[in-house]
Amino acid sequence: MENCDVKEDIFQKLEKCLNERIMIFDGGMGTMIQKHALSEEDFKGREFRDHPHSLKGNNDLLSITCPDIIYDIHKSYLEAGADFVETNTFSGTWVAQSDYGLESQVYRLNVESARLAKRAAQDVAMETGIERFVAGAMGPTNRTLSISPSVEQPDYRNITFDELVDAYTEQARGLLDGGVDILLVETIFDTANAKAALFAIESLFEEGGYRHIPIFISGTIVDKSGRTLSGQTGEAFVISVSHTNPMCLGLNCALGAREMRPYIETISVNTTAYILCYPNAGLPNTFGDYDETPAMTAEYLSEFADGGLVNIVGGCCGTSPDHIRAIAESMKKYRPRVRPESIHNDYMLLSGLEPMYIGPHTLFVNIGERCNVAGSRKFCQLITTGKYEEALVVAKLQVESGAQVLDINMDEGMLDGMAAISKFIKLISSEPDIAKVPLCVDSSNFAVVEAGLKCTQGKCIVNSISLKEGEEDFIKKANLIKRYGAAVVVMAFDEDGQVQFNNV
Asked: Which of 335, 241, 278 is nearest to 18 (CA)?
């Protein structure tokens, strides 16, 4: 088969293809499922016919109850020219499946979905002589770490970072056991959710006994503001997720190709990863349908290719095999984007809702220290007496006065540091004027540091770690900080005390 040397690993295979041509993703799974007009009985099948909850609309379950339909959809996209198909697992976590009372089926759903997609890919590869690949789809869930579901309680969350890590770990394990070639964290409207998914994936690779496979990451810009639902710009989003060294970064959903172009340009000039783009078939009409024809979508994406912006293109909501066929044909005459070898050399990249670059020509960086219980008597009193809303005013004034980074420290004997830092950072997330700058999570207690990191969607700074507890402890903490996606201050201490500098 073409591009199928068993001696090459998946990274080598994809690198080779991505440098030779623009590769093709599949189109909308939900779009094709809707065309079957399935009933409640179809979704339940024989196995779940006595299930107490309604299961209609639970598309992931169809990999078990109607596998032939899902297989045929995968095959139709592959026959239309797709190099990649996504598994039917957009809602394949216990978080999403709890709406249907099917939490116990999550691992199985992911394994079976991966096997179906893999079988379709292998069958079409045998028919055509061209290898096809399976991307394990990991959707955003229906909950968010950065936004409160309650207007009255801006610090309230209906999910925790640890719960999301647990959910994504189970999903990723199922996808990997089912044989996917790639893990795709997609439709990211809240970067904090994505960071939990990436944390789970990295943990499985490093500690779970699974071999590394490529990671693709795709965010969602929700409107012409150029921001995700949780408020990040495209640049800030790239900075926040790049610690995992994804093979591909890009955007999907919410917008059509015409509306998505400026945001794909932003991603393209800010990453050394390959660029992935799979937009909707335009914007939905008043009935929620999509009117963009295959020829129109292909024409818009051709403009991306002609501009040297993309390496992989496909479709999301409203697209069909006809769209993918038209896109695949139109891409044949274009060369793929040339991936830059380096970007922002010698710069430290940070992010809140907006990006921050600190480099050789950066002047002094102003760090606001008044949200530190050890640095401000007023702030300490407000926090210890539970007046968090008033303490938030201190943070806002710091940023308005020119603070480029906000230091948060809750190391006070009368405080539950973990609870205090979590609550305050969640409150900051509800205030865009504060959340736009990166945070410095500052504590001598690493458990408090972790509690803070679990609440931040941007790339922040940890202050600090040292060798005081020995090399093994230092390396463990450094690896964890990297997995959370943060920068770190390293203090020059070891077991014997502070480093002494002698004049030479």
From this structure: 335
